[in-house]
Amino acid sequence: MDRLLVLCRHGESEWNKLNLFTGWKDPDLTEKGVEEAKAAGRRLKALGLTFDLAYTSALTRAQHTLALILAELGQTGLPEIRDQALNERDYGDLSGLNKDEARVKWGEEQVHIWRRSYDVPPPGGESLKDTAARVLPYWDAHILPDLKAGKRILVAAHGNSLRALIMKLEKLSPEQILKRELATGVPILYRLDAEGEVLSHEDLAG
Ligand SMILES: O=C(O)[C@H](O)COP(=O)(O)O
């Protein structure tokens, strides 16, 4: 029997809207973000999907997104595991700064390197490689065993913690994963085999 996994980046946050580096800071969703999360739940419901277990980060925007999706699915009591291993990458000294102002201060290219290189961390923060170094052991120790046990799993997390996971699931190179932008509130549906190898994946936009 195929295993089911859905990954979803949180809906638009207050700091996404203000164009601020966020990382481990903890803004909540905007009204638009709330709507995006509800739409994600309706999309999953329309496909007839239900879940046995949910994982999320220690941050409000991901937890709130999960709660809104579960409400749409009629699954508000679903067991939910929160862990900071699934948090957004730590943006270090950039956290709270405006992304356009940072480009003016440090230059377009440097800011792009901090945001989208694989292994160059922003000052005081985590690169995607560093993020993967905490997300993937968590996947191996917790989420993958639950999946192998046949649980249908929903993960509500963040652009870069999910990128780290997607890179492994889809066997992408650092170049490939860095070009992959995750839209807020768009679920990605994976079907996996009994060993956790991906059989198919589909973005559930719109
Ligand atoms: O933490 C943030 O600022 C965003 O959620 C992700 O940022 P990015 O688009 O620079 O990866």
UniProtKB/TrEMBL annotation:
Swiss-Prot/TrEMBL catalytic activity: (2R)-2-phosphoglycerate = (2R)-3-phosphoglycerate
Q: Which superkingdom is the protein from?
A: Bacteria
Gene for this chain: gpmA
**Described function:** Catalyzes the interconversion of 2-phosphoglycerate and 3-phosphoglycerate.
Q: Which HAMAP family match?
A: PGAM_GpmA
Offer one example of a GO biological process linked to this entry.
glycolytic process
- Protein name, per record: 2,3-bisphosphoglycerate-dependent phosphoglycerate mutase
Short name of one Pfam family = His_Phos_1
Signal sequence span is: none
Q: Does the keyword Ribonucleoprotein apply?
A: no
